[in-house]
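Risk register update: the risk of archive-format incompatibility is retired. Evidence:
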Amino acid sequence: MQDFAGRPVADFVRAFTGGTVAARDIVEGLLARCRRAEPFNPIATLDADGARATADALDARRTRGAEFGALAAVPVSAKDLILTKGLRTAFASLTMKDNVPMVDASAIGQWKAADAVLFAKTTTPEFGHKVLTDSRLHGITRNPWNREHTSGGSSGGAAVSVALGLGPIAMSTDGAGSGRIPAACCGVYGLKATLGRVPHEVPPDQFGQLTYLGVMARHPADLGAGLASMSRGHPDDPWTAAIGRTPFAWPQDIGEDTGQHPIAGKRITVIRRMTGGYLDPDTEARLDAALAFLDRQGARIREMDGREIDWKLDVARIILRANQIERFGEMLKTRRGDLDVSFAKTLDEGEAIDVVMLRRALVDRTTAYKSVQKLFADCDLLLTPTVATPAPLATQDQFAPLVVDGKPIGDLRSAWYTYTIPFNMTGHPAISIPYGRSKAGLPIGLQFVAPWFAEAHLIALAEAFDAETHASAEFPPGFAP
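Archived output:
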């Protein structure tokens, strides 16, 4: 049994293909970590037998001198919203608790084809409907740095798994920040790629897509490894059609800028508050520290008031709710008692969306896109906090106000995660980078946003930050290898 926790993807692949370690030994070490992680509840479905069988098959192939893919023997997990052939995908719902798909999502199939070892499905709220990770089916997923706090959501299980060393990469989804928010809460790197970079062929509304498959990792370069192995297009996803023949390649996808410093000379626009709301003092202090670091590295920084931009923040909610009620409306009528209360309320919001609201929202999405495009005419990157405060308590209610120092500061959408929402509408790639912790010891994340298809620049930027912070080497108490 080998504990490879904390090591990058390249180390897994090199050790296995070079004959230093057996895939089965990697898996056994991983499964031992999974048992230690149980109090934090990041795993929805553990496939120990399947992981062992895959590892044994890899070991047998190696004895025959076979060639291997880019993720050979790398243990990976996937959020419980992503289809996995032969492995339960319950969507964290009592209504789907016995669902076993007959096919893999394209991105999962690509990771498997790259010889990754899928060992688990990670927790999420029911059908990924909120930015906190708890459900009637799976319970509460807790923050690895303090169990009294939330992991964030809806990819909370993915973030906790990576933070605790349960594989170097995890596949997430992101509909309004669902990958970046838990990454920030749990102190790992979380990437939402450009619209159309990764196939997401399952949702019924392909042309109105707001939800992305993403990657979480402990090491920034592993975001590139994961993305490169899941970015081949799929014919049922029209957004991937244009790049179906040219998948993302790391680090080659940096293109003509290869070799250039990821920070020096870059024009960075900083937006402290999207709508003029509350910003936690510890978070703002870390933002200021990041600005000092960027300045030392030669960045050209300017700040702007987020209130100068009409972000159309409610547009994403309207489109998401309209899609949700179309997809789950019958379930709401016939099985409301089996649904989480907060999910039923979410669907009730969808019932209230009328055609006029939806028609306006579709137009406003284009307005939001053009607004962000204009920002990139004068800058190379946008920088914001990922969320306005470190992780709330695990008991936080999706529909209750966020309370800071005994004072309510607004609902979660308007007070906590305004920063992530716009870029699901506009399609721009965005990353959450861990940058220190609060006085209470909770991780703090910063978000960078880039022009379309500039994921490689975001990953290179994250590498520069990691060289400064060594965040990739940090583990929650008791989980260092």
